[in-house]
What does this fold into?
Amino acid sequence: MAHSLDHETYKQQVRSVWVATVWLSVITVVEVVAALLWLYVIDPEGKMSKLLLNGFFIVASLLKAYFIVGEFMHVRYERRALALTILVPLVFLIWFLIAFVWEGAEWQNNRKVWNALPDIPAAHQHHDAGHGGDHGHDGGKH
It folds into this structure.
């Protein structure tokens, strides 16, 4: 089955690819600049939380994924059902990643709490230690 495009449709598709490429480039440059600014200007000593910076990177990565999936994987031009079969699992994948990172952080916090608990003194661990197991009996010697 041969596909034929008129000249105007071809020009529009080429323009869309270039627009997506420019957006991907701009977002990537902004990400690099943000990382360098954070590293050398905003927090050169590394004392601040990187939650804001990481949130920005996540949003920028999702924007780039949108352009890549939409334009270069042609999902933007597909029927709705096919687009949903690609995008819905992607949403669940992102949700699973966030849930696993969240759960991992909770495990790390719990581990810190458990490690901070005081140790049980040795005298309370083995109340029979040093008694020889005869519970105060002298073994029949009177």
User: Anything to note?
Assistant: The helical segments are 7-42, 51-72, 80-116, 122-125. Residues 13-77 form one domain.
